Amino acid sequence: MPDHDPATVLSVRGLNVRFGRNAIAAVSDVSFDVGRERIGIVGESGSGKSTTGRAIMRLLPQKASISADRMHLNGEELLEKTEREMGRLRGKDLALIMQDPRYSLNPVLTIGRQIAESARLHLGSGKKDALIHARSMLERVRIKDPDRVLGLYPHQISGGMGQRVMIAMMLLAKPKLVIADEPTSALDVSVRKDVLDLLDELVRENDSGLILISHDIRMVSAFCERIMVMYAGRVVEVLSRMEDAQHPYTRGLIAAMPDPKHPVRRLNVLDRAQIEAEVGR
Amino acid sequence: MIRVENLDVTFGEKQQRNHVVRGVSFEVARGETLGIVGESGCGKSTVLRSLAGLEGTWTGSISFNGKPVGKNRSREELKLAQMVFQDPYGSLHPRHRIGRALAEPVRSMGQGDGWSKVAEALLQVGLPAEFVDRFPHELSGGQRQRVAIARALILSPPILLLDEPTSALDVSIQAEVLNLLADKREELGLTCVLVSHDLAVIGHMCDRILVMNDGMFVDELTRDEMRLGITHADYSRELIEASFI
Questions:
Q1: Structural domains in chain B?
Q2: What is the percentage of chain A residues whose pLDDT exceeds 90?
Q3: pTM here?
């Protein structure tokens, strides 16, 4: 691709996703670029944030139809790839970290085997090397006794540790783009920060791009350089700081959050009619 | 209004023994809202479930309105405290229409069939009266939580127990539900105990906050202390720091 800028990892133009014959698009006309940076996608349930993430991974169900003017990863069009090519890409160049480690880890395989599988698949390591690699990855995600954890099953570890294991597995192949879909919403507040810091550190070290999908605009604004706010399948605005919000939806969303430092008697409620009018312009 | 002394809850036996709540005592004044905050597994929900009469293994004493209540509650005692649960998807019977879900507490307390109160109960939480004929799956999460609040209030209890009432909801819907709870509390003069892991929600709703860790209260904060970020224990400081990154 002649127009490919090496600093851009992912470039999306005019992404549309529709489920079945549903008249309403789940994602409509979404365009953005991700460099070697951290970008956040914020929105409420049904805003299309997760669907956008999955569309990039090409992990949407059969009934979903995806169309885009362009969806380039490192200059290569993702929509033209065959399923087999995508399979090789997923986990190697593109990684997805999902919300709840209890559901995304295989319950009948030990942690060690699952991480080692990733090493064998993407790095072509032998059985023994893969296990050594898995162990060092567990150390990287600051698990204290990696040898013990290697032999445990997912139900034997805590949520925070499970999410570290997921991160270890996903970042082992040093992917160019990491999509983290609500990586901390199943975790306790005290563990959240550790997991985010860890993710940040590893992504920086690998010089990858990160898309952080969350409903929590405060967390995203503390963590990402740019914030993309989605409402009803559209991007309503792109911000670098939460305080710069202009769109009535974003402002409404921020005002609806209780803030103990600035107590109010009643919380602001979104004026949906006004937002609909603004979005539907 | 509520007085709890040396509440102690243990689950399991021998090696499986798990000491969940370790001798906690607290009081809640009439009309006050007490918040209990802590991480998963700290015992906060167990305290609330013991208050509601849903746990059968506690020791210590609980009294409402000056009268001690036991593990097996009489109808009169049950009517004193009603609870709103965390998951609006799980707490309504999927095969019962909303009308039946709301009439059920009235019927089971022997106060008639309850149908006459249903329409009013729905209006009270800002839902249209036509919702009586709907099934829970025809409602959104926020609407279901409103139904759960209506169900708790239909017996006019003086005490409302809230277990993470908004953690399954979007921020904008959370704001609507919290406003509804604040309005009802003021209108009916309710005494509330709110349990949550979300300090922002607790700080917004509560007059006084107890921080719980490993079955015990480690700190007590007033609303002003919360606003200014004053804490008296390391654990609560860490919790507050981690909550507002």
A1: 2-50+74-95+157-243 (3.40.50.300)
A2: 55
A3: 0.86
